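Q: Given only this backbone (502 positions), what sequence would you predict?
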């Protein structure tokens, strides 16, 4: 076996014939990151095929109290996923080894301590993860330990779906067409048996106390079984009406799988395979629901590839012509938005849903993000960060993509001049006020038609008047965008509508 190889296996082990025989080793470490499952996990499966003993490891971060990019909700869900993973590994004869600290140091130390010959992992795509993977390869290879990366986070890797010039797509529709045409990797068999050496020391499974955090919200149950149950539930009926019901705020019209995809308790390949199986068994109308849903999985991969090919989006606008845009700095406004006290019922309902559950419906994510950027003129990066701290499904590619889409600065974003009106959005997507009343109890007894236009007086005692006039702020936003881009109203009329989600 050649040490120092650092290839990426394409999602399953069947691609390299004879691979298993060539690589039979005594011990391999599988490093769990965002692939917290034993089903359809090609990295874990390959480790089990190629070594007599496998050490499944999770490295817990060591920061305390606050972190700019995460918060208690996502960490709590992670703890639940790890608990479930540990149980699942025990059932197949293995053991989850937990260590805390710097991943590179801990993994190399563990490999040295246990005489592991290789470290297997699922490839990740953010600049931070890529840097860690490179550091790990350098440090491990220097000690003769092999590092192999597999593709388990996405169905097709960012480097696979390229245009005819071999370049990255910047627009969704051609990307999606190319994505559809690619052959998809098959599912990997479930790991049936795993032997972990009994003498390897493990820290206890983390709880929120590890980061000096306390529970903040009522989050969904975590783990592989919980994710699979959500998928089964969605496939039983809601998927068929997904095309028409996904934006209906009073229906449970979406899958609620985002946190499972975020932590990999279910694989995107498995979701796709389950959808494709249904396609053959249903009517044309039902197929529309399934195809619309699959399209959202493709949006997920579109944003992964945007971050991979254009990592500048992490700090800057995807489209440089917006870099001179004027944003306000107003902590008091940001705070009212965050607490759900803007006086716009739909915005407040969304922010309160987020604060109470660590989740927000996609339609409302767009509404609150447009409101922050176009009505309050606050920088999308502030909203992006707030979401990352609160969302259980907080995922840098989709979150950055969603924020830049709403701000109008991103790849295939909403054109900046198509500004959502929170009042008419309410009439379209929550006409009976059911969603608003669920999350803003002060408004329980208010006639819902009053949520669809600016009120002349308070809607209820203790509930604020709208903090801004939408019509006026819309004009301010347009002027700022026009002056930054030098676009005129006439240019705007010539532009195509973009993704019709506005
Ligand atoms: C401002 C903003 C921020 C967002 N931040 C995140 C985030 O941090 N993490 C995240 O997973 N999604 C994010 N989204 C996308 C979307 O809102 C969520 O994926 C969706 O609401 C999750 O609910 P669901 O699982 O029921 O979705 P479903 O409608 O059932 O969709 C199925 C899956 O497709 C993917 N998906 C759906 N819509 C999108 C989209 N627009 N972009 C990328 N992937 C999508 C998700 O993985 C989702 O679980 C954001 C959207 C906006 C507008």
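A: Predicted residues:
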């Amino acid at each position: 076996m050649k040490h120092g190889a650092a290839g990426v296996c394409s999602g399953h082990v069947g691609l390299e014939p004879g691979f298993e025989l060539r690589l039979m080793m005594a011990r391999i470490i599988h490093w769990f990151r965002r692939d917290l499952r034993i089903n359809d996990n090609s990295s874990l499966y390959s480790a089990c095929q190629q070594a007599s003993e496998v050490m499944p490891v999770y490295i817990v971060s060591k920061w305390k109290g606050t972190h700019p990019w995460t918060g208690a909700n996502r960490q709590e869900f992670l703890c639940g996923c790890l608990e479930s993973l540990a149980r699942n590994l025990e059932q197949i004869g293995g053991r989850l080894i937990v260590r805390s600290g710097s991943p590179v140091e801990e993994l190399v130390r563990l490999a040295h301590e246990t005489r592991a010959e290789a470290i297997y992992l699922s490839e990740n795509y953010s600049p931070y993860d890529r840097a860690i993977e490179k550091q790990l390869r350098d440090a491990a290879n220097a000690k003769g330990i092999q590092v192999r990366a597999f593709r388990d986070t996405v169905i097709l890797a960012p480097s696979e779906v390229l245009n005819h010039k071999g370049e990255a797509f910047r627009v969704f529709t051609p990307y999606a067409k190319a994505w559809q045409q690619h052959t998809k990797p098959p599912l990997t068999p479930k790991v049936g048996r795993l032997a972990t050496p009994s003498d390897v020391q493990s820290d206890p499974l983390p709880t929120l106390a590890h980061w000096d955090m306390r529970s903040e919200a009522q989050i969904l149950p975590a783990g592989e079984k919980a994710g699979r149950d959500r998928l089964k539930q969605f496939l039983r009926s809601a998927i068929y009406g997904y095309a028409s019901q996904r934006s209906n705020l009073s229906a449970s019209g979406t899958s609620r799988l985002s946190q499972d995809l975020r932590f990999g308790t279910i694989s995107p390949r498995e979701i796709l395979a389950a959808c494709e199986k249904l396609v053959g068994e249903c009517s044309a109308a039902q197929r529309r629901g399934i195809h619309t849903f699959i399209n959202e999985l493709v949006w997920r991969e579109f944003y992964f590839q945007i971050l991979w090919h254009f990592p500048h989006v992490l700090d800057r606008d995807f489209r440089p012509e917006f870099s001179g845009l004027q944003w306000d700095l107003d902590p008091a406004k940001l705070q009212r938005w965050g607490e759900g006290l803007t006086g716009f019922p739909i915005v407040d309902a969304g922010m309160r849903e987020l604060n109470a559950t660590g989740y927000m419906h996609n339609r409302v994510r767009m509404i609150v993000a447009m409101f922050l950027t176009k009505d309050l003129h606050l920088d999308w990066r502030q909203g992006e960060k707030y979401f990352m701290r609160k969302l259980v499904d907080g995922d840098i590619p989709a979150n950055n993509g969603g924020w830049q889409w709403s701000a109008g600065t991103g790849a295939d974003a909403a054109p900046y001049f198509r500004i959502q009106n929170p009042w008419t959005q309410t009439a379209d997507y929550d006409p009976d006020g059911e969603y608003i009343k669920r999350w803003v109890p002060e408004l329980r007894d208010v006639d819902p038609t009053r949520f669809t236009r600016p009120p002349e007086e308070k809607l209820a005692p203790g509930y604020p008047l709208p903090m801004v006039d939408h019509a006026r702020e819309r004009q301010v936003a347009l002027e700022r965008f026009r002056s930054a881009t030098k676009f005129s109203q006439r240019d705007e009329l010539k532009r195509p509508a973009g993704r019709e989600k506005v």
